[in-house]
Amino acid sequence: MFKRKEKVVSELVMRNLRAQGLETPLLQKRLIEAWPVVASEFIARYTTDVSIRNQTLYVGLTSPALRADLSMRRQEYVQKLNEYVGSQVIADIKFC
After folding, report:
1. Counting Cβ atoms within 10 Å, is residue 14 exposed (0-12), middle (13-18) or buried (19+)?
2. Which pLDDT does position 15 carry in this prediction?
3. Which of 42, 83, 93, 95 could bridge 57 with an S-S bond, Cβ 3.0-4.6 Å?
């Protein structure tokens, strides 16, 4: 008998996505969907738009006071969002 090299299905899927150039868009989509979870539903109510360009997450907010508060804590949110996704997807956040 011989031993097979066992591989985890998630590793095989991610390797296939990476080979096709689809890993980054998938991780970006997951990160955008994670914003209400990581930031909280309260903050999500004041969020108008969330997008990613050049490793920067752009978050539109309707409250100037909330925008100022979140701007001071943006590195904390960068770390939490990247940890939630499990990869380094963004490097900064801009609140608009």
Report:
1. middle
2. 80
3. 93
